[in-house]
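Quick one: sequence plus nicotinamide-adenine-dinucleotide SMILES, need structure tokens.
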Amino acid sequence: MANLKDKIAVVTGASRGIGRAIALRLAAEGAKVVVTATTLDGAQKTADAIRQSGGEALPVQVNVADADSVTQLFKTVMDQYGRVDILVNNAGITRDNLLVRMSQEEWQTVLDVNLTGVFNCIKAVTRTMMKQRAGKIINISSVVGEIGNAGQANYSAAKAGIIGLTKSVAKELAGRNIQVNCIAPGYIQTDMTEQIPESAKEQLLNAIPSGRMGKPEDVAGLVAFLCSSDADYITGQVINVDGGMVM
Ligand SMILES: NC(=O)c1ccc[n+]([C@@H]2O[C@H](COP(=O)([O-])OP(=O)(O)OC[C@H]3O[C@@H](n4cnc5c(N)ncnc54)[C@H](O)[C@@H]3O)[C@@H](O)[C@H]2O)c1
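Reply:
Sure thing.
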């Protein structure tokens, strides 16, 4: 067990999929979880599930691409709890298209949410964590940020950007006892991967040595570990949760 008793954790994109599993897991480890999503209704559902299992949760609506919205989120968190111990940057979207057909809007929207969103949240929490002289930041990248993917130039660029961002911020904050790490999930069963055509899904499965898709809980387990004191000497790393897809 990670033992996160009374730690204050903020998880972005926690209405469903990987973010929801992370929020539930951190709550099960004893953390008080600020559950955020693009809609309050979505955040509320995960918060309700946490409370039903005896945990504590605060649902908040946020658009991570909007710096003002992010500032408001962390103001709410500070008013309620007065500290932030854990930030999990999980919110992400796809707008897939081949580069020749990709619109400026498809490019920019994905960069805004998937990369600038991570910057906005890290920036909003950094001073607080520096003052605390403690903090854990976990950024959810992707294997395609490491190896690329046809049809995902925007998404892959954003996910690769997260890796560079993670390493730079890890170097800046290590001396303040703040660890910043990155998780690169492979092919995980969520609404996001539900959209992939059946033929492409079969191809993907063939490329996974473990022979199965990952579960959101597979990612959540690593997040819990990275948030624990057992991971205090781990920073600036990219750890894959991909059944051996990339090695
Ligand atoms: N599913 C996979 O196979 C896979 C693989 C690698 C990486 N990832 C990454 O994991 C993360 C979660 O993926 P998922 O499959 O659970 O996706 P999902 O589509 O099921 O959930 C995405 C979440 O992000 C939130 N979100 C979207 N735009 C937002 C915004 N502007 N502001 C705040 N929240 C926003 C949504 O409300 C939702 O809660 C994403 O960053 C994704 O890129 C997923």
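The first helix runs from residue 17 to 28. The chain has a mean pLDDT of 97.
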